[in-house]
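User: Need the bound-state model for adenosine monophosphate:
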Amino acid sequence: MSFAELGLNPIVLKCLETTGYTEPTGVQSQAIPAALEGKDLLVSSHTGSGKTAAFLLPSLHKLAEPSKIPGADKIQGPRLLVLCPTRELALQVQKQAGIYGAGIKKLRTVCLVGGAPFGPQFQAMRYNPEVMIATPGRLIDHMERGRIDFSRLEVLVLDEADRMLDMGFVEDIEHIVSRTPA
Ligand code: AMP
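Assistant: Bound-state model below.
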């Protein structure tokens, strides 16, 4: 099976050409078509299996088209939110989002992680990034400062959800999810 056969947007397919990947991995072949249908997925897959692209590619497929939510371009908030247990993982996800989303006009990403100064994060948010990658604690810090509107959010990913739960993030995650659209 090829990436084109999965039904991904040509803009995303073009960016994939720069990666040198020849075909989807197992988790990508299974998850991408279901995600493109708009299903909610619970996916279990090892690090190294291509799991990050399995959620980023169908998400970026959506972001390659303008939001269908009325007035979305005036809303100050992300269309894709990825929660990660650690700063390191969040930075890796941001890097991959930059590669797979390189062809999408005006696509901006922001990484809101603890252990990093707030200043550059506030600065990045001024440009209203469509992709937000965050660790739960730091995201809540930003939410409490009233800086994030989730009303145009289309995709929520809990990356390494099991690890986040092991790390005691359950209440933070529930709080964040309660602020997102149904
Ligand atoms: P992950 O499971 O997300 O940690 O991905 C592990 C590595 O697989 C990353 O370095 C990706 O660049 C790479 N990768 C993702 N998808 C593919 C693919 N379809 N073919 C080859 N490598 C891939």
